[in-house]
Amino acid sequence: MMNLSNQSLYKKLVYQNIENALDDLNAEDKGRYYICNCPECNEHEAFIYKNNTNFIQCNRENYCGERMLLQFHEKKKTHPTTEKVDESYLNLSEDQKRALAWSMRFFPFAKKALKSEAMDKGYRGLSKENVRQHVIDLQNKEVVQYFFKKTSSLLGKDYSKSSWMCERNIMIPLYGVDNTIDRLLLRSSINPSTEPKEIQLILNPSKETRDFFVDIPKNTESVVFCESLLDALSFREIDKNCGFVALTGAAKTRQVDSYINKNKHIFKDKQLCIAMDDDKAGREATRKLTNILKKQQLEEGTSIFRYDAACKDPNEFLQTNRKQFKNRYKENMKQLESVKEAER
Fold it and tell me: How far is the C-alpha of 167 from the C-alpha of 158, rounded, in Å?
């Protein structure tokens, strides 16, 4: 059992409550404990004992073995007669507030000012105009290192000292409802073979962070549900007005359920297309999303995207056979239009 008197020695991860932590870490109930993704190495080999839910440890002793504290808090309520305070910042230190404010300025600057050969040539089959709206290339390890130094108070660790982390020059910021940065998705074009391909970091530890991207233009006729932002942007390549909801992992459907419940009017009368990855986790996510849409009485306007045998996700399909990918999307839209015609 961990000696809690030594808490200051351990990295701390802050969540709203234990349910949010278990959801974010993709936890599986194993009786006396949960098996979940290690926040450090991202392997599904960390554990949390139910009699000590403030502690998580990676079971890969010879490769990671990281131990971390989990802290939970509920949103504080301000007295109705007091001046309104942004609850998102109540639990941030002054250093963290400055780091968050800096990151909010840094990313818009990086999108416009930093040139990127990878982005300009078309990253993963996506056009420059499409990809640069969401994806940032910090180009080299030195710039990534600088970013990690500036945000170390938010991340709970100084990743600038990790050569492996500093290879991850491709950054995708995920913004919350209040337009503050919630999460950061990291990939690498410096070393494309590095594993895992994508790492997620929580950049605002003061609140429950959003774990999906949403971009639904006001006058769009269609919305696709995908397992990643790159998959969603693949549909934008063939339909510039296509709306999307992009998860940050196949298991991340809980917040999407809540979002649809609160914003059902956005999805009503839209052509909805579920395009999760064609693998075990993706098929389970498809099942969950289908049930969510059915619960909200939106299933009649919903179709499931079909893949070629050689492709497992939309971005791979786009890169392998762009024409066929476009035709499959059109088939889905025609199918949905036929359903609507029959109802009239």
Answer: 14
